[in-house]
Amino acid sequence: MPRDMVDKEPLPPRLSQVFQSLANNADGPVTVRQIRDALGDRSFAALLVFFAAFNLLPLPPGTTLVLGLPLMIVSAQMVWGKKIAWLPELILARSVQAEQFRALTERFIPRLIKVERFIKPRFWPLPDRYDERVIGLLALLMGTLVTLPIPLGNWFPALTIALAGLALSERDGVLLGIAGVMGVFSIVLIVVLAGTVTYAFHAASAWFW
Length: 209
Fold this sequence. Notes:
Layout: H1 15-25, E1 30-31, H2 32-39, H3 43-55, H4 63-80, H5 89-92, E2 95-96, H6 98-116, H7 131-147, H8 155-170, H9 173-208
Helix pairs in contact: 1-6, 3-4, 3-8, 4-7, 7-8, 8-9
């Protein structure tokens, strides 16, 4: 049966289709509010993917501190049990020029489409009442790691959040398991990187003094 027809009712468009539509129709700055409204009732999962995707791109140092904050706000609401994503007006009003947004989507959407080919509803282990809370807790932990000023320490936590958001959007238990493994790896990596940076700092201080 085609994906877009279940009991003769169309399924919501995939995240790649939503982002592509936004990019195609953008005739001015694209705001976070526009993106949230376009995502509709899938806003939590999609916003996780959206904000995590920015953290996967090569950006100037310190940017993750700003981009990690929306991840923490969204995931905290999931843990709290909110049904509609709320973001501060300061974040909702943030915008990206249409050309920049298209450039970002041109890099991000092909990768997202490749991942979506392997995603489907299967082996979903979480009851509907608690799935967003559990994934929100994972995203909150990973979002906190994203904001830490550790070189190369934000990429794997951001990837974990993106995978968890995609898993939630399609109820894919296999992908959720992969996200969980990635989350454990992220924590171990952050501990190792933090220990290495701390050791190097103390060694340099001892040598200098």
